[in-house]
Amino acid sequence: MTRYAHVVGWGSYAPPQVLTNADLERMVDTSDEWIRTRTGICERRLAGEGETTVSMSLQAARRALEVAGLRPAQLDLIIISTVTPDHAFPATACLVQDALGASHAAAFDLSAGCSGFIYGLSIAAHLLSAGAYQTALVVGAETLSRITDWSDRATAVLFGDGAGAVVLEVGENEGGVLSTLLGADGSGGDLLRLPAGGSKAPPSHRTVAERQHFIQMKGREVFRFAVKKLPEITREVVERAGLSLGDVSLLIPHQANQRIIDAAVRTLDLPPGTVYTNLERYGNTSSASIPIALSEAAEAGRIHPGDLVVCAGFGAGLTWGAAAIRWSRPHPAPPPRWLQFLRRMRYPLAAARSALRRLLRWLTSLGVRDYLDGEKR
Ligand code: COA
User: Fold this and answer.
1) Which of 1, 7, 57, 61 sits at 20 to 30 Å (Cα–Cα) from 268?
2) CA-based nearest residue to 232, from 181, 294, 187
3) Residue 217 Cα: closest atom of ligand 1
């Protein structure tokens, strides 16, 4: 039997706090007009106090599971793509696994810059098709505001926070993720980077004084790379699926810059209306940008069962990736309130179970469990 990895759930989360171009005019030497014409961005969302990559991933994941109609315990695998994890370790995916109560899922993070979500989708789809798993949750989530230098106008205007997620499930019907393509060129690693905080330059007074814990970017060179790569990978992934550009129902590109997207559309000669953009509202949310756009497009009825959706991204590394997906399901109507309430109750229960596990671990460390086990015998 051929196994197809279908996208059966989708969801996104954008924090409520909005930072407009007018706000940025008050922070750095820039203008609304410059930002709009050079990037297409009007506003972006920022994580509030207490919000992190884990908390935003969780919101997006819960919505995706809701759409999929799956319980967290039915998940076999969780992949979270991020360059802004809560910690270097444990992995963001493990903390999300615990908070969801996805007790049977393997979980790991991956770092592939703004292409990360496509990397995660590709890995998950291949594992499902190969028979390793039945279901997978793939999340792209970023809290870029915490590594943005708010005094650097070249980068401060570009980035935002958020999370997007999809649930994949194996099916026998032909469709789902038809083809993927991944690539990298580390010779361009210096074009977009976070210089310090890793093993090469651990945090120190010097790295802080030199502002090395913030994004550094050679914008013009990244722009040139992206303008070339985006149409190239879009064309190639469609060909790998044995289809042509005329079959594409919707292109969901990485939401970095409207000029990059416009150039790709021109090169590919795609008809108007074939591209989904939302970067005017969110800016560049790195790994989160494609799954947020994908979820929004599906919720807005821009994607229908049978449609060919192509996602294509590029970013730090340098990396790139694309996926051609035959869409399987319509966006479902919201379930009745009582069912929503019951489903929401899963998460406090998951938190209680997690607390119990911690308690048992603590008791074990005190030797109490050994004593109790001895009593039982
Ligand atoms: N406001 C006003 N002026 C700004 C500015 C800002 N926020 N940022 C840069 N400028 C100025 C520059 O200082 C420069 O001034 P100068 O000509 O006096 O030296 C001028 O605008 C042009 O700068 P340049 O860097 O050539 O602009 P650009 O047209 O290349 O646009 C980016 C800059 C960053 C918008 C563009 O290069 C880009 O989008 N690159 C790709 C970035 C990206 O997508 N990164 C993520 C990849 S995942």
Assistant:
1) 7
2) 181
3) 45
Ligand 1 and 222: CB distance under 6 A: yes
Q: Which of 21, 114, 278, 311 is catalytic?
A: 114
Region of residue 113 (phi > 0: left; psi between -120 and 50: alpha; otherwise: beta): left
Residue with the nearest Cα to atom 44 of ligand 1? 256
Q: How many domains does the chain have?
A: 2
Are 136 and 277 within one domain? Answer: yes
Selecting among 6, 21, 94, 254, the annotated active-site residue is: 254
Contacts of 372 (CB under 8 A, 6+ apart): none
- Does any ligand 1 atom lie closer than 6 A to the CB of residue 290? no
Q: How far apart are CA 190 and CA 377, in angstroms?
A: 62
End-to-end CA, the chain: 50
The tens digit of pLDDT for each residue in 102-152 reads: 999 999 999 999 999 999 999 999 999 999 999 999 999 999 999 999 999
- 144 Cα to the center of ligand 1, angstroms: 18
- Domain span at residue 97 reads 4-326
Cis link prior to 90 (omega < 30° from 0)?
yes
Neighbours of 246 (CB within 10 A): 10
Per-residue pLDDT of 12-71, as tens digits, reads 999 999 999 999 999 999 999 999 999 999 999 999 999 999 999 999 999 999 999 999
94 plus 162 within the same structural domain? yes
**335 within domain boundaries:** no
Reading the block at residue 306, the tokens are: 């049978």
Q: What is the residue whose two structure tokens read 């990244």?
A: 222
Best probe residue, ligand 1, of 25, 28, 38 (max atoms within 8 Å of C-beta) = 38
How far is Cα 257 from Cα 226, in angstroms, rounded to an integer?
Answer: 10
Cβ(220) – ligand 1 distance below 6 Å:
yes
Could you tell me if 362 and 261 lie in one domain?
A: no
- Whether 21 sits among the annotated catalytic residues: the reply is no
Would you mind telling me the total number of residues written for the chain in this entry? Answer: 377
Specify whether 358 is located in the same domain as 318.
no
